[in-house]
Amino acid sequence: MGKNRKISVLLFIMTAVSVIALEKNKNVLVMEMNAPEGSGKGIYNHINSKLGPHSIEAPDLYKTNHTGVYHITAVKDMKYGRVFAFHIHLKEDRDRDKTDTFQDRQRNEIKVSHKSDIRLHGLEGRTFIYEWYFKISETMKVSKKFTHLFQLKPAGSDNDRFPVLTFTGSKSGSSDIFSVRYYGDNSERKLAFIPWKSVCGEWVHASVTARYGREGFISVRIENENGKNLLSVTEKKINTWRGNSSGRAMIRPKWGIYRSILDSKNLNEKDTVYFRNFRIYRVHGVE
Questions:
Q1: 75 is in which domain, residue-wise?
Q2: CA 222, 227, 229, 233: dihedral to nearest 10 degrees?
Q3: How far is the C-alpha of 197 from the C-alpha of 170, rounded, in Å?
Q4: Does 12 score more than 50 pLDDT?
Q5: Is residue 4 part of a domain?
Q6: What span, in angstroms and rounded, lies between the C-alpha atoms of 197 and 274?
Q7: Number of domains making up the chain
Q8: Where residue 158 sits, what CATH number does that domain have?
């Protein structure tokens, strides 16, 4: 083989190795969802087409709950076009079909489920980036209990009762706060918090990076429309896994409104939270 030929082969190999390394370390977009045109059941069909069957936990889908009204709709935002609107009603809505078991809470959420594309499953050793925008009305109230707007929630194990991470609105003394909460095996703590009003009345961008494992990783950043940082926190070597030997364990994201109504006097009769531009990235090269 001539000298020039050897150099060409060597350059080809070096280029190939560089491309492979790049591929292994890139973020791969595995799900993107925006609000579609249309209304009613068409909105639900669109969500299921992106997240998979059984990905919606809206009160109107359960005959013992609040039927006859769609709890997730698509509306027009003057700046961003079609966006999702998640509605909750204090007196009528409850938690899925658990209306007898859980009379103290109500839920209107979407989620990754076991029926979702397996690429969306938060399995042990995997790393994901979840990004989305949300807008809370300036008039929305929170109580002394919890109002979750986002969860990283275990599923499929005997240790899946509590979430791993939440975005939560609540009262803290005389103040209303928005907090990022972490739930360990037997504990709960606020990783960071800001005034509730600082995330109300405008679109807010949220980014959550999570590596699932006994020594996992969580990083959260929340910015306003202008890119100003409102909240950021990173936790390393933190337990983000709740699996067991069942083989079905995973962590999945949940978006929407899930709240306690035990302190109902501090809540509105009806509230709406808006969401848009959901994206899920799988991070390769860090497992």
A1: 28-283
A2: 40
A3: 12
A4: no
A5: no
A6: 16
A7: 1
A8: 2.60.120.200
